[in-house]
Amino acid sequence: MADGKLTHFNEQGRARMVDVTDKDVTARAAVAETIVRMRPETLEAIRSGRVGKGDVLAVAQVAGIMAAKRTAEWIPMCHPLPLTGIDIQFREAGNDRLIIEATVKTTGKTGVEMEALTAVSAAALTVYDMCKAMQKDMEIGPTRLLRKTGGKSGDYARPSEQA
Length: 163
Known about the structure:
Blueprint: E1 26-37, H1 40-48, H2 56-69, H3 71-74, E2 83-93, E3 97-108, H4 113-131, E4 139-149, E5 156-157
Antiparallel strand pairs: 1-3, 1-4, 2-3, 4-5
Helix pairs in contact: 2-4
């Protein structure tokens, strides 16, 4: 902690992992989402199980869970955390959008926002990978934090938005 502030820079202005030694252990949770836009026939193929590579949502769910568990390996200076819960949910919006939502929980000294954002990103990329033979112009995003609870900065809830 340089000058009592949590920062990714040391006294010499060089990068470092934030020191959370003095922070309290609390229950923390974060919920993030992303949207995959695709043609209606691509979404129908996912829904009906007609994608040649297998069950797209089952594989994407596992990818999201695995990515959340490995976030510290992907994001520089992100703390490795003992995650206590990860849930990935899928829902359709209209006939051309798949919304992916991740809820990640821990009891620790730092939050799990990055783990939730990483989870939905990996799940969306997996959907793309499994369906790209059918449609290469799928779009992913926006990816955003919806809510978080716990920690020194308190709770956060994104203002309601239309997907």
